[in-house]
């Protein structure tokens, strides 16, 4: 079944907002991301795009802690935090750059997954 989508418009790409990602993944995993831009959804929700440096996959996180998936043509569908984590970190351990401490990343990723389950 297709998920309902909502339109989003680029708001800004100059002032990074890290708090939504920090709240979800914590200090250890946040360093694996680049903040890309902010989108305003049709309902006024601020949505921040974060790109994983290895997987090149995105988190789209709202300031109220929800996750979204970019669908197409500026449309976003809400998904669970666990789905968003799995998508953003998909095959991270097979890609470059490698973390200095892969065990620490695995531990932190397990902690985040468990908190979202």
Largest sheet: 6 strands, antiparallel, barrel
Total separate domains:
1
Envelope shape: globular
Widest beta sheet: strand line-up: 1-2-3-4-5-6
Can you tell me the residue ranges where pLDDT is under 50 for at least 5 consecutive residues? none
Report the C-alpha radius of gyration, rounded: 14 Å
Question: Proportion of β residues?
Answer: 25-35%
SSE class: alpha+beta
Q: Secondary-structure element sequence?
A: EHEEEEEHH
Mean pLDDT: 91
- The end-to-end span amounts to 22 Å
Count of DSSP strands: 6
Number of helices: 3
How much helix is in the residues? 25-40%
Fold and architecture overview:
The chain has one domain (5-116). It has a six-stranded antiparallel barrel. 30% of the residues lie in helices and 34% in strands. With 117 residues, it is α+β, with helices and mostly antiparallel strands. The chain has three helices and six strands. Strand 3 and strand 4 form a beta hairpin. Helix 1 runs antiparallel to helix 3 (102-116) and helix 2 (81-88) packs antiparallel against helix 3 (102-116). The chain has helices spanning 19-30, 81-88, 102-116; strands at 5-12, 33-41, 46-52, 58-62, 67-72, 75-79.
């Amino acid at each position: 079944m297709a998920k309902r989508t909502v339109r989003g418009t680029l708001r800004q790409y100059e002032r990074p907002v890290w708090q939504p990602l920090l709240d979800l993944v914590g200090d250890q995993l946040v360093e694996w991301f680049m903040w890309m831009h902010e989108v305003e959804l049709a309902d006024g929700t601020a949505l921040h795009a974060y790109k994983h440096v290895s997987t090149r996959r995105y988190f789209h996180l709202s300031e109220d802690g929800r996750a979204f998936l970019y669908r197409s043509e500026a449309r976003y569908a809400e998904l669970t935090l666990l789905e968003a984590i799995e998508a953003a970190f998909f095959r991270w351990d097979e890609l470059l750059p490698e973390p200095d401490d892969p065990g620490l990343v695995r531990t932190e990723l397990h902690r985040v997954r468990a908190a979202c389950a």
